[in-house]
Amino acid sequence: MKAVVYHHYGSPEMLHVEEIQKPVPGRDEVLVKVHAVSVNDWDLGLLRGKPLVNRLLFGLFKPRRKILGSDIAGTIEMVGSNVKQWKVGDEVFGDLSGRWGGFAEYAVAPAAALMLKPPGMNFEQAAAVPQAALLALQGLRNKMTVQKGHHVLINGGGGGAGTFAIQMAKSVGATVTAVDSASKLETMLSVGADHVIDYKSEDFTKNGQQYDLILDLAAYHSIFDYKKSLTPNGRYI
Prior knowledge:
Elements: E1 2-5, E2 16-19, E3 29-37, H1 41-48, H2 52-58, E4 71-79, E5 91-95, E6 106-110, E7 114-116, H3 123-127, H4 130-140, E8 151-155, H5 160-171, E9 175-180, H6 185-190, E10 195-198, E11 211-216, E12 230-236
Parallel strand pairs: 8-9, 8-11, 9-10, 11-12
Antiparallel strand pairs: 1-2, 3-4, 3-6, 4-5, 5-7
Helix pairs in contact: 4-5
């Protein structure tokens, strides 16, 4: 099979296509024919070998994992002997973080790492979900659960996790203010944001507004800057 591999840390020029052996799933794994895979920030960090923790975990001088790509969507082609919940032909999507391997024609995945792809969602849409949507969900349920009537600010609302977070917060009746660059304001409004802020023209920590939750996906302020923007029982995540 063909796969996009890298043998040295560095820029995207380190990536190239190679013909490698098709993997075989273990007893608790499945083999997925990959139809789509998304690119996440973690992929770039592993490619560059930065920050240092990536090298400590995955190879100090050279990467131990040669194929990047975690968020996949595809069709199950083979199932391990212990796998009962999946069968050949099932259309699935999931997150391979920790093992990666999605930038290839086929990838092995733990059976528990996958979910059935909704019939109304194509493979490209499904592959865009796992990491970004999970980060958004975790952020909105960390220490408090966002509810109807809450005022939520999402810093970095125009990115992958941010656009999911806007939609999730709106779905429970929260009022959402989203912050990002001017080029992303229309996108944030289109997915449901009530108010948008261009961070280059306005510092939301200085406008006097307060929020029940600040979900910070950009982190370009000191955490101490946010205190005055929180309600008395507000949370910063």
